[in-house]
Amino acid sequence: MTNQNQQNNQQNNQQNNQQNNQQNNQQDNQQNRNQQDQQNRNQQNQQNNNNQ
């Protein structure tokens, strides 16, 4: 019985880890996109300022 519990725990832990990793990756990706967008806007603003 203890073995079964351990196995179940391991499986649950693995599933939780996978889910957490997936969520973290999605968040990271979104942050990276946001950051890139912001950099692009900053660059565009700089160019606009230089053109004035």
Which parts are unreliable, with pLDDT below 50 for 5 consecutive residues or more? none
Number of helices: 1
SSE arrangement, N to C:
H
Largest sheet: none
Say how many strands there are. 0
Average predicted confidence as pLDDT: 96
| Structural class label | mainly alpha
Which term fits the overall shape?
rod-shaped
Distance between the termini: 76 Å
Strand content: under 5%
State the share of residues found in helices, binned by percent: over 70%
Radius of gyration: 22 Å
Structural write-up:
The protein has 52 residues and is mostly helical. 96% of the residues lie in helices and 0% in strands. It has one helix spanning 2-51. Residues 1-52 are annotated as: Disordered.
Question: Which descriptors would you attach to this protein?
Answer:
about 50 residues, mainly alpha
